[in-house]
Sequence to fold (261 residues):
Amino acid sequence: MTDRFTDRTILITGAGSGLGRASAVRLASEGAKLSLVDVSEEGLAATADAVREAAADAEVLTITADVSSDDETQSYVDETVAKFGRIDGFFNNAGIEGRQNLTENFTAAEFDRVVSINLRGVFLGLEKVLKVMREQGGGSVVNTASVGGIRGVGNQSGYAAAKHGVVGLTRNSAVEYGEFGVRVNAVAPGAIWTPMVENSMKQLDPDNPRQAAEQFIQANPTKRYGEAPEIAAVVAFLLADDSSYVNAAVIPIDGGQSAKY
Fold:
């Protein structure tokens, strides 16, 4: 590993599991100071332990917060700046899948629940963090979109609407803030084996989720699921100076599956 993030502070939402945890471990191994945000205190503690296994001397701040709350978002940003003085990178990652259902059966309540976290939460993070980055003279943001944000996936009205919205927010903010030395990009993961995807397979086949998972992945050119560290590697690249002229990009990380449709 390199030391690309030595003396840099990276803020990660949805850090309690999955892509957030894998990215925290990757970034800490490259020297980052971390501010980790999640609604699950237990998940944050497990991530902090994983980070310290990877980098024993890592500086880690954990903050329990609901990203859909304006006040709690402001608090996690303020706590991060109070602790570390700045925010050099922001992995704006927190999200949920929601129930799978045809649009006519999805319900407005479930739609609002998914959009409040997956889209409102991303907007609130951008609203607060971009101000900090503009005032400090630079920074890099990576939003978590999805292949469900660049094409239809079916049975996920709330998720698809929110992730398409994340793509729009990414491009819009990138256009606005490029002149201030702030880059805004997004990753669009496909079938990555995380707790969220595992739960999705349970919804498809409660009695045999592993069989459903194997059938689902056969449509992928690689015939396998991606792993969270594979996403973390791209996130680290986008947060680092290595990608200094990459702005407004939405990068699919899906083994090529989205190219088939």
About this structure: DSSP finds nine helices and seven strands in the chain. The CA atoms of residues 68 and 116 lie 6 Å apart. The two ends are 36 Å apart (CA to CA). The mean pLDDT is 92.
